[in-house]
Design brief:
Elements (H helix, E strand, L loop, with lengths): L17 H13 L17 E7 L2 E6 L6 H16 L6 E6 L16 E7 L6 H13 L4 E5 L7 H5 L16 E4 L4 E6 L13 H14 L7 E5 L6 H9 L4 E6 L3 H16 L4 E12 L6 E3 L6 H4 L4 E7 L14 H17 L9 E2 L5 H14 L5 E6 L6 H8 L11 E6 L2 E7 L2
Parallel strand pairs: 2-3, 4-8, 4-9, 5-7, 5-8, 9-10, 10-12, 13-14
Antiparallel strand pairs: 1-2, 6-7, 10-11, 14-16, 15-16
The structure holds adenosine-5'-triphosphate.
The site of adenosine-5'-triphosphate has 19 residues, from α3, β10 and β12.
């Protein structure tokens, strides 16, 4: 296995080293292990998903889900024994790959839900909220955390993890797995890269590295990804939100006047760019004094709820407990409650709010779509409203509607197309 170099992930280009020699020896040892159901070796049977070598430690991911428990255990034990018998191997781990774990899928598309965490200003606790939220989610479902803050990636230090990032045998960067007592979290960050020096990553190089990690990371989690964005609403943030279909953004702010003003503007900007705002986390608004026991408001005045056009999902006090390293599945109630609210908001953020009588052609084959649109539109009386829900951008339908009425498409009044979810559009028009 090679350490992952963000500028060159082609394993063919990496220097052969002792790790790759060890890998070869592991491979030939594994060839002696047979598939219990067919008389072929485990490679021919497609049972070896990947082999990762880290120093003298070897991890094999085995696709054994087709076997019953007894045979799966038998074949995994035989693989582990074969690897262990290779001289120079000091640790052998064989992990089953389950079909529901998302193994094999790369990039952020592997996740059902992607939640971005943003802030208008730096230092307001965005990464603290991202890590706490991701750790709380990991207690409930397979979750990942992507630190996209290229110029100040502090997720690794908040979680107390280090790189380097390794690649699987296809060159896909592997996330670092952070373990809690009974949950784990996949973590990827430019701050984990061995070549590190993220502050030196500027412009195109930083963007390329990030794009590659977005597209290629071989996550093992597949349910929810938390994306820790850089502070502000600059290029990296907006490009990222364009490149990745996020389900929504959580905005972190302090209740300080100018922070609220900037946050209100960011919320508007996200909405203008078609990104649903799931809500705001108001951080460090009060302080519970350990000496007198009283709670002090640090920023008295108008509340965040009054200033922001967004649901306040959580208000976190200034507390040393938020400076501790969170563990996946063991974060305390504040982040657990936040995780619940965020999941609920994400589930409904993209609801297609279409009129009851809208024609829904999602999933129809292309010929059937045209037929159904023609049927419905021609049956309308002049001046009646037409609404269509589609899983493709229906802008070209304007021409088709024009053809149906022998009119110039420009004469279709009230024609509008809105993208309501990453995959759903609503078209409305009035029959001429
Ligand atoms: N509620 C809180 N109570 C106490 N300390 C906090 C709280 N929230 C954040 N902090 C501390 O504030 C510091 C900044 O937090 P964090 O790194 O999460 O901010 P950020 O907005 O991500 O910063 P950056 O702009 O650098 O990305 C950290 O030391 C963190 O431990």
């Amino acid at each position: 296995m090679s350490e992952h170099d963000p500028t060159n992930h082609d394993p063919a280009n990496s220097e052969p080293d002792t790790e790759s020699e060890l890998r070869d020896r592991v491979e030939s040892a594994l060839r002696a292990v047979r598939d219990p159901d067919a008389d072929v070796d485990v490679f021919e049977a497609g049972l070896v998903e990947s082999i990762a070598v880290d120093g003298a430690s070897v991890t094999v991911r085995a696709a054994v889900s087709e076997f019953d428990d007894a045979n799966a255990t038998r074949v995994m034990r035989a693989m582990a024994q074969a690897v262990r018998d290779v001289p120079a191997v000091e640790g052998a781990h064989v992990e089953p790959v389950s079909p529901s774990s998302g193994d094999g899928a790369t990039g952020v598309d592997a996740f059902d839900t992607v939640i971005a965490v943003a802030s208008a200003k730096g230092g307001v606790g965005k990464s603290t909220v991202s890590t706490g939220l991701a750790c709380a989610l990991a207690g409930e479902r397979p979750a990942g955390l992507f630190d996209a803050d290229i110029h100040g990636p502090n997720v690794p230090s908040l979680l107390d993890v280090e790189g380097p990032v390794h690649s699987d045998d296809e060159g896909h960067p592997l996330p670092v797995s952070v373990g809690g007592s009974d949950a784990s979290l996949d973590v990827m960050s430019v701050g984990l890269m061995e070549s590190g020096a993220p502050l030196a990553w500027r412009g195109a190089m930083a963007h390329d590295a990030l794009t590659e990690l977005f597209a290629d990371t071989a996550w093992s989690a597949d349910d929810t990804l938390v994306l820790d964005l850089p502070p502000g609403t600059g290029d990296v943030v907006l490009t990222t939100l364009q490149e990745i279909s996020v389900d929504g953004v959580v905005v972190v702010t302090t209740p300080f006047e100018s922070s609220l003003d900037d946050t209100a503007r960011s919320i508007e900007l996200f909405r203008d760019n078609g990104v649903p705002v799931l809500g705001a986390v108001v951080n460090m608004g009060e302080f519970a004094c350990p000496s007198c026991g009283d709670t002090h408001q640090l920023f008295p005045g108008e509340t965040a709820g009054e200033r922001l056009d967004a649901t306040v999902l959580a208000e976190l006090p200034f507390s040393p407990r938020f400076q501790e390293t969170p563990a996946p599945g063991d974060t305390g109630s504040a982040f657990e409650t936040l995780a619940e609210s965020v999941s609920e908001a994400a589930a409904t953020a993209w609801d297609v709010d279409a009129p009851d009588d809208a024609l829904d052609i999602r999933g129809d084959p292309p010929e059937r779509r045209k037929e159904r649109v023609a049927e419905r539109f021609t049956a309308l009386a002049s001046g009646e409203a037409f609404a269509l829900v589609s899983d493709r951008d229906p802008t070209p339908v304007r021409r088709f509607l024009g053809g149906l009425t022998d009119r110039d498409p420009a004469e279709i009044d009230g024609f509008s197309v809105e993208r309501r979810t990453p995959n759903d559009w609503l078209l409305t028009a009035t029959k001429p």
